Amino acid sequence: MTTHFLSVEGLKKAYPGTTTPVFENIHFGIDKGEFVCIIGHSGCGKTTILNVLAGLEEASAGGVIMDGREVAGPSLDRGVVFQSHALMPWMSVLANVAFAVKSKWPDWSKAKIAEHSTRYLEMVGLGHAIHKKPAELSGGMKQRVGIARAFAIEPKMLLLDEPFGALDALTRGTIQDELLKIVQATHQTVFMITHDVDEAILLADKVILMSNGPLAKIAEIVEITMPRDRTRSEMHHDPQFYRIRNHLVDFLVNRSKGYAGSDAALLHDAKHPPVVRPGLASDEPPPSDNSRPILKQVVNQ
Amino acid sequence: MFSKQALKAGLISLLLFLAFIGAWSLATHQKEGPAASGADAEYAALMGKGAEKTSGFPPPAKVGEAFVTYLSDPFYDKGPNDKGIGIQLAHSLGRVGLGFFLAVVVALPLGFVIGQSPLLFQAFNPFIQILKPISPLAWMPLALYSLKDSDVSGIFVIFICSLWPMLINTAFGVAAVRRDWINVARTLEVAPLRKAFLVILPAAAPTILTGMRISMGIAWLVIVAAEMLVGGTGIGYFVWNEWNNLALPNVIFAVVMIGLVGMLLDQLFGLLQKAVTYRE
Questions:
Q1: Are A5 and A66 in contact (CB under 8 A)?
Q2: Touching check for A133 and chain B: CB below 8 Å?
Q3: Is B274 on the interface with A (CB under 8 A)?
Q4: Over its length of 280 residues, how does chain B's per-residue pLDDT go in tens digits?
Q5: Backbone region of residue B234 per phi and psi (left: phi > 0; alpha: psi in -120 to 50; beta: other values)
C-alpha cells in the first residue's frame, strides 16, 4: 500500500444516542500538494470528516495520520477556513491575521508579525482594508480575510469548510480564481468541502463522492484529468469538462440516494473505493439529452 | 450637533419642568396675613428661625435656597453631623466603589469558570437562584453581627447586591461565545490565558458590561437605604439626618442629588458598554 501525506483509515462517526453511524469505514489518502474536494448531500458527514481532520471533533473509530503522526486535537499544522469566516469582530482585519501569526510564531517582533500578515492580506487583494473592522467588509472580503488567516500560518495542510457557500455567484467566481492562483503558487495541500460541482472541477485534482447518510460511504473518487493550468473562463472549452461535470451531477442527482442498495455498493471495497476518470472516457456514446451543456448548477444543502 | 427632534424634545422637557415647578409653587403658596397669633410669634422668636421648618411642605424657592447653600460650599466639614454634600456623596461613592470592585474581583473569575463548564454552571445555579432575590438589606444584621463594623457592613451589602447580576451575566456571556471563535483559537493552539483575554473576554464583554451596569444601578439604590441604617456618613445618612431635623428642603435637595449621581453612574457604564460592543 502506498503511503500518503495524509491518510484517513477506517473513520467512523456515530453521535451519542443514535444507533446507525453517520459514516463508517472511510478510507482515503491525500498526497502532498494535492487539492481534494469532497462532495455529497447534507447529512453525509462531510463537515464531521473535516472537523476530525482539523482535530476539532473526535471520531468514534478509526484515525487520521498526517505526515507520519496521528492527528490528535487541533494543531497549527492544519489551517482551517470556516464556512462562516469566523473572524473576531472586535479586531481589525490585520489584527485577526496577526493573532494567528503570533500564535504560530510567538517570538516574532510586532513589526515582523504585521509585515507577514500584511503580505498575506495583500495576496488576497485586501491590502487597502487592513485597518477596517470585519463588520465594514462585504461577505466576500470577510472570507478572503479568513483565507489569508489560514494561509498566513503556512500550515502543512489547509482545510476549507465550504468557504464560498454563503457568497453570491460573482464574488464566488473571483475568490475561486484567487484561491486557484495562490494554491498553484504555493503547492498547498488542500481538503475542501463544496456543494458546487463547477468549483470542484476548477480547483480539485481529486473529488471524493460521498453517498447519502446515514451509513455514508465514499462511493467513488473522481480524478480530474484536465490539465492543472485550468481557468474558470477557459475550462468549459475542454471536452473533458462536460464529461466530468455530467458524471458528478449524475451521481449527486441520481446515484447518491440509491447507492446503499446498488450493485456498486455490493462490490464496494471500503479500503479501495473505485477511482474513475470520466474525463478520459472518450469512447462514450455521443452526447445524449442529459449531457447537453446545462447552466451552472449548484446542489443545495 | 442637535437634531431638530432633540431640540423639540428639550423644549418640551423645559416646559414640563416649568409646569411642575409652577404647580408645586401654587400648591405650597402661603396666604399672606396675620402670620402668627401672639403666642406663636413669641414662640417663634424664642426658637429663632428653627420654627420656620414646621410651616408645611416647602415651596420651590426654599428648596432652591438649599441648592444654592449646599452647592456653593460642597466640601465643608463642621463635625460629624454637618458636612458638605460633596463629602457625603464622596463617602457613598467610596462605599459603592469598594463594594462594587470587590464584587468584580469575585464575579468575573467565578463567572468565567462557571460559564466555561456546563457542569459547574448547573451545580452553582441553585445557590445563585436562591441568593439572588434576597434583598441586600436583609443581610445587614448578619453583616453587623459577624463583621462588627457598620462601615464594613455597608460595603458588604453593596458587594452582595452587585455580585449576582455580574456573576450571572459573566457566566452567560462566556457560555454564549460563538463556537467558531473558540474553534479558531483551538486550531491556532492558543494558550488558555491568551484565549481567555483575547478571545473569550472581548467576545463576552458586552454581556458582562450589561451585568455591571445593572449591578451599579442596584448598588446605588441600596447604598441610600444602607446608610440610613448604619448612619455616620454618606448621602443616605444625610437624608435621614435632615428628616430628623425636619429640614425638608434639604431632603428634597439630597433626593435630587441622588438621582443626578445615579444617572451619571449609569451613563458612565453606558459609555463603557458602547466601547466594548462590537458590530458583527
A1: yes
A2: yes
A3: no
A4: 668 999 999 999 999 999 999 999 998 886 554 455 555 656 656 655 544 445 678 899 889 998 998 888 888 888 877 888 899 999 999 999 999 999 999 999 999 999 999 999 999 999 999 999 999 999 999 999 999 998 899 999 999 999 999 999 999 999 999 999 999 999 999 999 999 999 999 999 999 999 999 999 999 999 999 999 988 889 999 999 999 988 899 999 999 999 999 999 999 999 999 999 998 8
A5: left
Say yes or no for a CB contact (<8 Å) between B189 and A86: no
Give the pLDDT confidence of A19-71 residue by residue, as tens digits: 888 888 899 999 999 999 999 888 888 999 999 999 999 999 888 999 989 99
Q: Do B278 and A79 touch (CB under 8 A)?
A: no
User: What value of ipTM does the predicted structure carry?
Assistant: 0.84
Residues paired with residue A65 on neighbouring β-strands, in sequence order: A7, A70
Tally the residues of chain B: 280
Cell of B215: 449591578
pTM for the predicted model, two decimal places:
0.83
Domains, chain B, in order of start with CATH, read 93-230 (1.10.3720.10)
Instruction: Match 465550504 to its residue by C-alpha cell.
Output: A162
Amino acid in the structure at residue A4: H
Contact A74/B186, CB-based, under 8 Å? yes
Q: Measured between CB atoms, which of B186, B189, B199 is closest to A88?
A: B199
Cell of B130: 436562591
Nearest to A224 by CA among A276, A175, A158, A180: A276
The grid coordinates of residue A236 equal 468549459
CA distances, A185 to each of A5, A159, A181, A182, A189 (Å) = 19, 17, 6, 5, 12
Residues 153-212 of B with CB under 8 A from A: 178, 180-181, 183-184, 186-190, 198-199, 202-203, 205
Q: What class has domain A6-77+155-291? A: alpha beta
Q: Which residues of B196-232 are buried (b: 16+ CB within 10 A; e: fewer)?
A: bebbbbbbbbbbbbbbbbbbbbbbbebbbbbbbbbee
Residue B160 grid coordinates: 452582595
**How far separated are the first and last CA of chain A, in Å rounded?**
35
B114 in Cβ contact with B134 (< 8 Å): no
Non-local CB neighbours of A190 within 8 Å, separated by 6+ positions: A34, A35, A36, A157, A158, A159, A160, A183, A203
Element (DSSP H or E) covering residue B203: helix B201-230
CA distance readout (Å), B246 to A228, A255, B191, B239, B250: 93, 91, 63, 10, 9
For residue B275, give how far its alpha carbon lies from the nearest alpha carbon of chain A (Å): 10
Would you kindly state where each structural domain of chain A is located, as residue ranges? 6-77+155-291
Closest approach of B273 to chain A, Cα-based (Å):
13
